[in-house]
């Protein structure tokens, strides 16, 4: 099989590419240049897709013995991921840029280019597994063996068609230590390279600062649930539901309890804060449903709303119809900090059933 291996410059993608080549596939490595700054340098272990990362990927490909290219996808990344991130925060929502990157870049733009060039599949270093266990033998997406590294949540929006053309050679690896050990055995220079973390296009980790620089200031009020003004802010885009620190409150609560962001309203430029119990909900509503398997009302599932959050027992209340675009899910136990824009992923055991985008909580 002709396989295009996405090589970020890290240890995971290098080992994945090596495993694909060892399995007998005709592998070509490609590094996706996503930064609009051609001189972007790596800072500590933050970020990815820098000049150093491209060189690390090139050296790994040479060691594996596969052709290697660098593709400039920075325009796609900026338009489809960065601009979406800014628009969502400006609308008072809380997006996950890694979900959007996987959906729109790694398994849309990259797969489209791979198809045009005659490749059969795309290989990445994600921690997840694809199996032919769906209805009629269709591709199904599963959690990885290493639950701590599992990335099925951020991959769920890819859908079954993209999953059928994807290889995740690390899905059955015991843990990250085993991946690094294999990289050492293969004499890949990235075996000790630190993991990247945080949002790759905000390498200093200052999300609020990035949003303020990009969206500007739009001063407004911080109020309680009764509308009393407690403080002021420089822009609602600096807040997300569930946030506790940096609220700009000028006096503590009368009962001394901590307060949290419970609502963000860009139209009125108001940030509403309140007690922690106001964050809990058992009812979820979501749009933009992507399914690996047909859902029916009453189906028992597990629901996850954060990449590293726990899945909780739930039941599908209703599915989208011609007159109602919403997927509704009832949780058997309340979860906190549900924010519009987050991704909802439904599981049956370790198998992904569906993904959707959360709207505002209803209860």
Question: What does the secondary structure layout of this molecule look like, with pairings?
Answer:
Blueprint: E1 2-6, H1 11-22, E2 26-33, H2 51-64, E3 68-72, H3 74-90, H4 97-116, E4 121-123, E5 128-131, E6 140-143, H5 152-155, H6 159-163, E7 166-167, H7 176-185, H8 207-215, E8 220-223, E9 229-233, E10 260-265, E11 270-274, E12 281-291, E13 300-304, E14 312-318, E15 327-335, E16 343-348, E17 351-358
Parallel strand pairs: 1-2, 1-4, 2-3, 4-7, 8-11
Antiparallel strand pairs: 5-6, 8-9, 10-11, 12-15, 12-17, 13-14, 13-16, 14-15, 16-17
Helix pairs in contact: 1-2, 1-7, 3-4
Descriptive key words:
363 residues, alpha/beta, Rossmann fold, SH3 type barrels, Elongation Factor Tu (Ef-tu), domain 3, 3 domains, 6-stranded antiparallel beta barrel, 5-stranded parallel sheet, 17 strands, globular
Q: What would you say this structure looks like, in words?
A:
The protein has eight helices and 17 strands. With 363 residues, the chain is of the alpha/beta class. The protein folds into three domains: 2-185, HUPs (Rossmann fold, 3-Layer(aba) Sandwich); 217-277, SH3 type barrels (Roll), CATH 2.30.30; 280-358, Elongation Factor Tu (Ef-tu), domain 3. The protein starts with a strand and ends in a 5-residue tail after the last strand. Keywords: ATP-binding, Cytoplasm, Disulfide bond, Nucleotide-binding, RNA-binding, Transferase, tRNA processing, tRNA-binding. Residues 209-274 form the tRNA-specific 2-thiouridylase MnmA-like central domain. Residues 149-151 are annotated as: Interaction with tRNA. The active site is at 101 (nucleophile), 200 (cysteine persulfide intermediate).
